[in-house]
Specification:
The chain is an all-alpha fold. It has one domain. It has helices at 6-31, 34-39, 45-60, 66-73, 77-84, 91-99, 106-121. Helix 1 (6-31) packs across helix 3 (45-60) and helix 3 (45-60) packs antiparallel against helix 4 (66-73). The longest helix has 26 residues, at 6-31. The radius of gyration is 15 Å and the shape is globular.
Amino acid sequence: MPVLKEEEIIQIEEKVDEIVLKVFLKALDIVGGPRKLILYRHLTWVPSLIEACYAVVLKEKFLKTESEIAQILGLTKQTVRNILSAKTEGIIENLESELKKKVIKTHVAGALAKLAFKEINQGN
């Protein structure tokens, strides 16, 4: 079994971060942009959305398991499972009502991250 060199590990980490940033920015765009989050006073959504983006990218692009993702992100396995099992259907239609709530639910963050990842993969 080959062992990765430190430079290779750093390159992988940078690649993950680069993809996650693209997914996060797309998810933010889907929500209506940063101004929309400020308008609704939902800057607390940002950490949950970033976690969801990492979980989706690690699962879909780097084929990590729920346990591995939970360990990497410092989340429970159940939280990771909730993010990854979130349904994207209807999220756009329900987004306005979700924005009126004070706390983003794991399935909403997961659905946004999954939708953003899908759109990026389709070249949007």
